Records
---
Amino acid sequence: MHRPAALIPRHYVAIGGRGPEDVVADARGRVLTGLEDGRILRLDGLAEPFAPRVEVITRTGGRPLGLQLLPDDGLLVCDAERGLLGVDVADGTVRVLADTVAGERLRFCSNVVALSDGTVYFTVSSRRYPLEEWIGDIVEHTGTGRLLRLAPGSDTPEVLLEGLQFANGLAPSADERFLIVAETGACRLTRFWLTGPKAGHREPFVDRLPGMPDNLWRGAPDGPVWVSLAGPRVPPLDLLHRATPDVRRAAARVAVRAPFRPSGAVGVLAVDDHGEIVHHLTRRHSGFRMVTSVCEAAGGLILGSLWERGVAVCEAPSTK
């Protein structure tokens, strides 16, 4: 495992709402994020702690999670309540791209990417638990996560992978030969081949991560894939995952009713297309908790969180 370095905070930016779960940067360095109340915001001026500009792009009418900017001023949104959405950033128009799959209501969409040919890939974290009970899926270890594909011009998603442990972040390789899928519940990144002799097959990409991976983000095609770690590994949870299904199910019922407070230990990783960790940044006692996303903007790293009411701006690591 790559030797960790310190995650150094610059400042915190309140944005007037809770839960900026995913953060993505546009070509001008502005950051888009979705909140618990359904708003999608565009944040500018994050380099300065006292002069950020917060603009409401639209309201989805649900709970936006993963975002993907498109070249034509469009935005793909995984909405945990409404399915896969398309947003016109210029006028805020929202349309449903897909809300069912194989006759089943599409819920808990998590993260999305679009490739150069227009094909859209997105994840569903759980078929058993809704977003507000996400911890139940982590504890029960249901393995009901999915990877889906939506072909250009289609409104019918295709299931590519099943049996994923809380499928979450997505990122393509630089040459678009494979996708990297974050499995939060298994603390690993999985590679799914799109082309070549292994097309349609999955394999481990980065295993035994030091924490639970959440959203993934890739800026420049030749840059690394940034991985947010929503929480550290929990040895008792690893042990519970080896118990019988009945034991895990009983533990999940307790977990969804118990008060939850995220750990103060936070971290982010950057990996290359060979599965090598090129950056590992951590902070053991952070006031900004449950880092569910990270992107590069404003000359640093911007952190999002399902838990917080703002975003954190941190120092970017030195280039290797």
Note: The longest strand covers residues 211-218.
---
Amino acid sequence: MPQKIANITEFLLVGFPDDWILRKLYTALFFLIYLTALMGNLLVVTLTTVDQHLQAPMYFFLKNLSLIDMCYISIIVPKFIMNSLTNSHSISFLGCASQVFLVIFFSGTEFALLIVMSYDRYVAICHPLHYETIMNRGACVQMVTASWLSGCAYGSIHVAGTFSVNFCGSNIVHQFFCDIPSLLTLACSGEHILEYAFIVASCCFAFVCFILMVVSYFHIFSSVLRILSTQGRYKTVSTCMPHLTVVTLFLSSGFMAYLGSASKSPSSVNLFMSVLYCLLPPTLNPVIYSFRNRNMKVALSKIFCGEMASK
């Protein structure tokens, strides 16, 4: 029977193989993707801040989404790069708890914000005459604030549930960052009931929120079908496609990653899904919104044309 670890002070992150060449390749790849994600999201934040044509509620929400993505990827990747360069696998107990909290905090905030963005599309398409009244500046700020606060509460609950357990047998986390499923595999038998209860409750709540998102899009597509013009239908649907793509990417990668990371010895496929979950959404979100949005492309061309003209 595994013995309880007394006064645990650190965990060992051993998600990737110890081969020196492979580890350096992973590090270089992570670094390049990290820079790409930072530059893309920073560009979105800059465009939606300085361009006067990008001051609608949708772009205000998009700015917050990019801020979340920059923070989220910065929690995981720099620590992995530092450990790889120093040939160290350790993370302190407090550092691990902080990483769990921040990952859940920003993931929960992003999910809440995606729900808010679906409501924005619903109002814009189903109630266009009342859009400016419903989605006024004060209401948008309140919804974004509620998203950040809900993410903070979500993270606090789960970090408290996860680290209230005693750990038995080993402090080796088979993952390249601290996540809840991997940590719970180290918990003593019968001591993770509280966190499992939190997970079930939060999943039920998240499912209800997801249903609200589905209902919003049901009404949206019902309104689209009532548009007589084919061009009008295409134009209306195209305003929803970036959001639908981002939601699909976020939920599908998250579901597959957390389903696989609950294994005590996750396969390379499960580890790969975790990498996708951590890196793909923050990297691709600005690309999806920039290439699918005409106003974003115009604002982007203004910046680059202005830079070319100045030269």
Note: The domain at 10-310 is CATH 1.20.1070.10 (Rhopdopsin 7-helix transmembrane proteins).
---
Amino acid sequence: MARSKTSKKWLDEHVNDPYVQKAQRDGYRSRASYKLIELNEKDSLFKSGSVVMDLGAAPGGWSQIVAPIVGESGRVIASDILPMDGIAGVDFIQGDFTEASVYEQILNSLGSSQVDSVISDMAPNMSGVNTTDQHASMYLVELALDMARNVLKPGGSFCAKVFQGVGSEAFTKEVRASFSKVIVRKPAASRPRSREIYLVAKGFKA
């Protein structure tokens, strides 16, 4: 079946993307790894010994960055609806965390631990209908914030991908209500035409 012009354009852009090529050379599972590297360098989201929750983790590009940094004294709890190949030092829970059973699994894996940082690179399966996609993306990031409010320790941090559009400004205000400092970032590895930004929130007000 012939590819549409749009999908061919995306494929050409993807193959020629310098961050895709760099990820292949560096052994990272995703070009998104470079987004988190930059965010952590600027905002110190996690360090040795941190407990980090990675939502929307598959294929593992972010967990790959976190696990070596937090080390054996830290923990990474990752979750996604899609499968993910194992990463040393990462506890992975597959399932839809909007379902109570999966949510409970994630909390049970934490045990008595509180989380230093919740990170989310979640995005819905894009339909191509802007209003539908925006609604779906805001729903996911709101769930990520809800999880963060439930598991973060006082002073903890939250970093999530947000697509600018309907609901994004209201969501940013909501995040500001729960954290002492909120910064908007657009990492270099984010495609310039993408509406994605990353909200980095520090100082959780438990």
Note: Residues 130-151 form the longest helix (22 residues).
---
Amino acid sequence: MSGNEEVPRVVSASREIAAGAGRVFELIADPAQQPRRDGNDNLAAAADGQRVRAVGAVFGTTLTMGSVRENHVVEFDEGRLIAWQPAEPGQELPGHLWRWELEPIGPSRTRVTHTYDWSRLTDEGRLPRARATTADRLQASLDRLAALAEQE
């Protein structure tokens, strides 16, 4: 890649999962489940009892490096869509977003699309990490999510 080529600022990955949308969504909407499916190996923990139910919800996660993030839910449709913007506690949102979209294909199949959008990211210090979040990292998260959802 030459120096003037820009890395895509919106990356996504999709796959079908052999589980119903309700089961898959529970694994996404419950922050305590996030570290189990994080293909970025960035999340260490999230407390139980933070199940997201609406836009405006805020849930906390602890990163592998020990810092805490408050995740502000900006899109929500039960069983279909959830998106949040992470920020350091009490700080302005730096402008990146994680989105999960679910499309039921049948009672026991769901197409899931995972997107990382850093097109509005303004914090220069976060840009190297954002550039490193590639579609294959998102695919790894989807694959881990599928493994969990299909365990029944």
Note: Strands lie at 10-17, 43-45, 58-63, 68-77, 81-87, 97-106, 109-117.
